[in-house]
Predict the structure.
Amino acid sequence: LRMADAVEELARASARDDMVAMTAANRRFHFTVIEASGMPRLTRLVRQLWDAIDPYRVLYYTELSNRETVDRQHRQILTAAQARDVDQVVALLDEHREHAIARFAQILGPDDDLLVGRRA
């Protein structure tokens, strides 16, 4: 239910061009999955990493095609999760992550510290 609510909120926020609401709904969607691991230390670590790159998500969401891809991918992940198809959820999350990384590389360029792992 929490994932489904996040998917719908993200779609509504996208229709309003509300970047703040979009990033919040996206966070709820993903942390529903992460928190389901039952591993609080992992959740804290991912939260720290997530917070560090959150400002970049606004750049990603400015493009309508990225929003449409996220909506489609989140709905596929939700369907697989509801079916309790763990292998499919993992495969879809991998695809989702790879798309985002590829788009960030295009948006930011190959020399951005976020992508090459360097510290400023």
User: Anything to note?
Assistant: The first helix runs from residue 2 to 15. The chain has a mean pLDDT of 89.
